Amino acid sequence: MRKIVAWLEREVSGPYVPLFIVAALACCYLYLVGLGIFVDAFNIVLPKGPKLPTNSPFPILIIVLALGAWVEEVIFRLGPIWVARRLFHASTRSTVVVILIVSACFGYIHAGGHAWFIAIQGVLGVMLSVVFMKCGGLQGRYAKALIASTATHTVHNTIVTLIIVLSR
Prior knowledge:
Elements: H1 2-9, H2 16-41, H3 58-87, H4 92-111, H5 115-137, H6 142-166
Helix pairs in contact: 2-5, 2-6, 3-4, 3-5, 3-6, 4-5, 5-6
């Protein structure tokens, strides 16, 4: 656990921020591919996910996705981490526990309570939290951290929406 905490506390900066975001998204999609293979191998039927407004004009859809991502990042990343760090002076280890709990809530809200979607969206929540923490959230640079996690979230939402739209 000490090595994970030490890694989280080393802030990503400069030209490494976009690279870190791409790496985080790549890890997320590798996890999703692995989960998809598992689901297919065991013939697990997943319920339909939430409905997206895919019939809207694309520029408006991107604005809605970005705004939604920003609101979720404020609620599920900035809020809990700020409260843990500033009000309760939580250690990084305690902040990680808070993030795991909040990420499960993030998955639950997206999933309507379905366990498989909690596993999918909860892991995405952890990944977005790691981006937030590594990009300044643990060092009190909340604006930078919020921009990085919101950009990551928006790119993810856009990719998922494109896949849904193009698969029709």
